[in-house]
Amino acid sequence: MAEHQEKHSENDEHGAHDAHGGHAVNPLDPNELFGHVADAAYFHVPRKLAPAGSHGHIHIPQPFAGEKPLWRANTSIPLINRTIEPLDLKITKFMVIELAVAILIAVFFIGLGQALKGGVIARGRFRNMLEAMLLYFRDNVAEPCIGHHDAERFVPFLWTIFFFVLGCNLFGMLPWMGSPTGSLAVTGALAFCTFFVVMGSAVVKLGPVGTVKSFVPHMDLPFAIKIPLIPLIFAIEVVGMFIKHGVLAIRLLANMMAGHVVLAVILAFIAAAAGSVWYAVMPASVLGATALSLLELFVAFLQAYIFTFLSALFIGMAVHPH
Fold it and tell me: How far is CA 42 from the centre of its chain?
């Protein structure tokens, strides 16, 4: 069945192009629209920038990939099978973008750290902007959510998570790139990092037994009522802990993917229009895409902030359970 899915996807890929310029036969087809925001083993660029006969695809070298994935979701629900990426050693577009974001973060902030050694004041608008953003998250996010005494330990993590999410979001605004935060694998990994820090910080401060006890608040109730109530509350709190971090991943995924899909739909109207209608649809689509892109720029910053704020809030709840 996996081989059938691979052949079917290959046929869809080649069948989505015609002989007169490479436009999709049906640009409003959901598979075609989601294909523009999904991860891939290539960058989709204009045909003039790609090798001849590649349908505008610049393929990423695959030195570690095997012929078949190590594992693939094989459920009765096609949406789940498409959403959960197969487990393999393939290098994808989102991986390249994430590496680029990590390198940019290291370059910018190592340089900023070197410039601020010895209490020197930051010089230049860009470095002043970075310093202002760092101080804002320390003073207005970390300390209020975690507490003044414990915040310093978690500030580097919160800084890193914010700028990494922001960088991945902003790459989605660049032509022919993509937003890694539009993939469940990426947002799930980020949420797992937060979950690991939350539980690890609770165990370090409260101890393993104290962490387990923190899931059940102190209740001045008769013993007969506590017996059924405490296990029920403990189970609800444990399940709630997993749900909170799962929603943390889904929220970022949904917001980033939805915006890019809507943008793809608006632009697809241009390819779908024909005849004299095209002259009315094209300017309206371009203006709509421009306005939506400005909104997406705001959403890129907003979702990075929300992810970081909720991470700080969850850490504060873990180290200060009462």
Answer: 19
Determine the average pLDDT of the residues in 98-117.
Answer: 90
Cα–Cα distance between 250 and 248 in angstroms, integer?
6
C-alpha torsion 7→9→12→15, nearest 10: -50
**Interval 4-29: pLDDT, tens:** 444 444 444 444 444 344 444 577 77
Q: Of 236, 247, 128, 122, which Cα lies nearest the Cα of 188?
A: 247
- The model carries a pTM of 0.83
Gap between the Cα atoms of 37 and 7, Å rounded: 21
**Distance (Å) of CA 273 to CA 19, 25, 164, 276, 287:** 18, 12, 38, 9, 16
Q: What is the pLDDT of residue 84?
A: 74
For residue 84, give both structure tokens.
């959960």
What is the DSSP secondary-structure string of 246-302? HHHHHHHHHHHHHHHHHHHHHHHHHHH--GGGHHHHHHHHHHHHHHHHHHHHHHHHH
Q: Tell me the DSSP string of 147-201.
A: -HHHHHHHHHHHHHHHHHHHHHHHHTTSTT---GGGSHHHHHHHHHHHHHHHHHH
Q: Based on the number of CB atoms within 10 Å of its own CB, is 165 exposed (0-12), middle (13-18) or buried (19 or more)?
A: buried
d(CA 126, CA 279) in angstroms, rounded, equals: 42
The closest of 141, 177, 144 to 162, measured between CA atoms, is 141
Residue 262 pLDDT level (bands cut at 50, 70, 90):
confident
CA–CA separation, 55 and 46 (whole Å): 9
Residues with Cβ within 8 Å of 65's Cβ and at least 6 positions away in sequence, in order, are 88, 89, 90, 91
DSSP 122: P
d(CA 82, CA 88): 15
- The helix (H) or strand (E) run that includes residue 317 is helix 278-319
Using a 10 angstrom Cβ sphere, with 0-12 exposed, 13-18 middle and 19 or more buried, the burial of residue 45 is middle
